[in-house]
Amino acid sequence: MKASLPAARRPVILVIHGPNLNLLGRREPHIYGRTSLREIDDELKSVGDALGVTVETFQSNHEGALIDRVQLAQGQVAGLIVNAGGLTHTSVSLRDAIAAVKIPAIEVHLSNLHAREDFRQRSYLTAVCLGQIAGLGAIGYRLALEALAKLVLGQEPRPSSARSARATLANKKGISTK
User: Is the pTM of this model over 0.90?
Assistant: First the structure.
């Protein structure tokens, strides 16, 4: 499916990659896979083009740079895909930046956090994101992009917040959110 909007008018989805993700393909490939960050970014840009959105990517090993980039995204991008790496488990500041900009965000992790060490099972970001995709390797980024593209292009109803999205899902499953 080829996009009908010219590239200059397409919604932008920003992909934020945190510390050590620049080492993908070489760093612990038994956990994170053999796909490099460049390969992930190139595929996302190609898939984004086919979906009718523009994909921009940013990677930093520095927490402040990630926070600055999230803040700069306000009013400029329609969606965020965030893999904060190890900062997922430690950065209240990055969590607060994502909450402050009020941009629909999906958290992505290559490995299954819940099958790893105890300290990796807690994410500070999940509560301010629409959802989390974890444990599916590089394909998780593509799934997040497909979901966000549908939301920002109006092909799916847009939850008003991560909290309401969780409440809606819980209600569909008959689960109390209190």
Answer: no
d(CA 51, CA 149): 7
Q: Which residues pair with 12 in a beta bridge?
A: 54
- What is d(CA 50, CA 62) in angstroms, rounded to the nearest whole number? 32
Fold assignment, 7-173: Rossmann fold (3.40.50)
- Among all residues, which ones are annotated catalytic? 32, 109
Which amino acid is it at 8?
A
Backbone phi and psi for residue 128, each to the nearest 5 degrees, phi listed first: -110, 10
pLDDT of 127-142, one tens digit each?
999 999 998 899 999 9
Element (H or E) spanning 147, and its range?
helix 139-152
Question: What is the C-alpha separation between 146 and 99, in angstroms, rounded?
Answer: 22
Domain ranges in the chain?
7-173
Burial class of 145 by CB neighbour count within 10 A (0 to 12, 13 to 18, 19+): buried
3-state secondary structure of 82: strand
